[in-house]
Amino acid sequence: MAIYSIRDLEKLTGIKAHTIRIWEQRYGLVVPARTDTNIRYYTDENLRLLFNVALLNRNGYKISKLAKMTPEEIAERVADISENSGSQNTQIDALTLAMIDLDEATFDRIFPLMPGNTDLNARWSSWSTLSSTNSMYYG
Fold first, then answer.
1. Which residues make Cβ contacts (< 8 Å) with residue 57, sequence separation at least 6?
2. pTM metric for this prediction
C-alpha cells in the first residue's frame, strides 16, 4: 500500500490541495489518516476515489451529488463514461486509473478505443522492426 501526501494527490488527480481539504470538511468525501504530527496522508483507496471523483466532476457531475454516492456507484459511473466517451482526456484518465489499479482487463478494454491508437500501434510496430533489424545487424 502506497502513502500519498496531499500534494501527491493534487499532482495525480488535478484537484487543487485547497479543494481536497474543502471537500474533506464540507462533504467528508475522503478521510485522510494523520501522522503523529497531524500531517494528512492518503492511501491507494483515497487516491482511487479522488481520481474517480475528478473524472466525474470534469464530466459534469456536481460534487454535492458525488459525495452522496457510494464508492461502488462512483466506480460504475466512471466505467460507463470511460468506455462510452469519445473524449481523449476521459480515456487517458481511465487508463491511468486502470494502471493504478493494475487492472489489465479494463486497460485492454479502453486502450483500443483511444483516438490515434492506430498511429501508436504503427509506431510500436516500426520501432519493434527497427529494433529487431538493429539487433540482427549489430548482433
1. 63, 66
2. 0.69
Which residues lie closer than 8 Å to 118 by C-beta, 6 or more apart? none
CA-to-CA distance for 42 and 29, rounded, in angstroms? 12
- Tell me the three cell numbers of residue 44: 491507494
Which grid coordinates are listed for 88?
Answer: 481523449
Residue with grid cell 497531524, as numbered in its chain:
38
Each residue's pLDDT tens digit, 5-50? 999 999 888 899 999 999 999 999 899 999 999 999 999 889 989 9
Contact present, 43 and 49 (Cβ < 8 Å): no
- The boundaries of the domain holding residue 34 are 6-127
- Cα separation, 22 vs 24, in Å, equals 5
Report the candidate in 8, 41, 6 with the shortest Cα–Cα distance to residue 20.
6
87: domain CATH number?
1.10.1660.10
